[in-house]
Amino acid sequence: MRNFFLCSAVFISLFIGCGTKNIAAANSDGYDYLSRQFSLKITEKDNLKLYDTASKWLGTPHKMGGNSKKGVDCSGFVNAVYKDVYKKTLNRSAADIFKKDIVKTDSSKLSEGDLVFFRTDKGDKKTPNHVGIYLKNNKFVHASTSKGVIVSSINEEYYKKAWISGGKVK
Predict the structure, then answer these.
(1) Is residue 142 among the annotated active site residues?
(2) Most C-beta atoms within 10 A of its C-beta, which of 26, 39, 50, 86?
(3) Is 62 tagged catalytic?
(4) 46 in helix, strand or coil?
């Protein structure tokens, strides 16, 4: 009977002490969970902290100038994830991140955690107004103005036309 209570106490404390996403990310089921969240095959070779952190933002609505899970814009989202995952603070706008925080790279050389930059309006085609975080297999996570935080492909026609550059954070 004593062992039953001890085992129950350990199970309950583990279950209550961890959010379900954190439990998932800590074991092989976490790879399946994150793979479903991002429609990508996530393995132990991937940066689980990046995927777990970004997954907690999925579905957050867009809010210009926002930087919380109540509402966030693209650079606010990138900053929040980078601060949590990489312990780095970036500039606040996509244009300033592009100018000051990265070393440019082209799309064929992107790796997990790199930033991707786009011009989604008719402004200066060399100055980005949108930024996201590259995952893998041409997918990136970002705060879209119409759908909030989502995963998209840089191969979608919209993003192909808006593409400026990728960048590795300094």
Answers:
(1) yes
(2) 50
(3) no
(4) coil
